[in-house]
Write a structure and sequence with these properties.
The protein has 276 residues and is α/β, with parallel strands linked by helices. Helix 4 runs antiparallel to helix 5 and helix 5 runs parallel beside helix 6.
Amino acid sequence: MINLEKLHFSYSAKKSLFADLDLELKPGKVYGLLGKNGTGKSSLLKLIVGAIFAKKGNCMVNGVASSDRDPNILSEIFFLSENYETPANSIKDFVSANGPLYPKFDQKKFFSFLEIFEIDRDSNLEHLSYGQRKKVIISFAIATNVKYLLLDEPTNGLDIPSKSQFRKALLSGFQEDQIVIISTHQIRDLNQLIESIIIIEDGKILFHKDVFELEEKLLFSKSLSDGNDADVIYSEMVPGGYIHIRTNPNNEPSEVELEVLFNAIIQNKTSFNQYF
């Protein structure tokens, strides 16, 4: 479990990034961490892994303060930063050097992910493109089988087929005791992968709900009209018409459009929580 309580963090004395931030994450879910640029998504991930430290409050991973940098906890965390670097050696040498850092690393699973991504296991990392190197690191990250997998903008640099391959690899490697956090701007890429949505705004958690709650309480529908009906909470123009978010008193099934929901919540910061 990950627990953040009354957490304060800033990069300068003049402005706080987080103030009294509370968050609890439980195993068995893929969390989508969303927010506008500069809201601190990457910083929040770094706080959880202990790369930076809170000014006040608690940041606990499995009951241990992340700032302690406990080796037993670190061996259960993999953080893929948006700006990562790979060594100029072969994939097999990379695995030999880094695999032992993670007790549950599964080399067979790693090579199976490379096959999903269509990467030759005998390749040298320095001869691969940016997108190909990213696929190798993503494959390694999933194959570590850590309890806490944190991915910062994992689909950046991936083409459309590779994004589909990423979803396939992550789902096939996911385990019930894991917490997966994906910080992303590419919401559409992960619409069918995210199970719980977290939106950060103004140094706090603006919205945090599981997708099944959204499916029960909200109805997403498309039409040609701009949606002036009484049950319409939010409307957004899309090619060919509008997407509406409505109240859902009859629990009608619909697919949650996370990008539309994100836009709606950012524009109506206080209104959406009243429906839950």
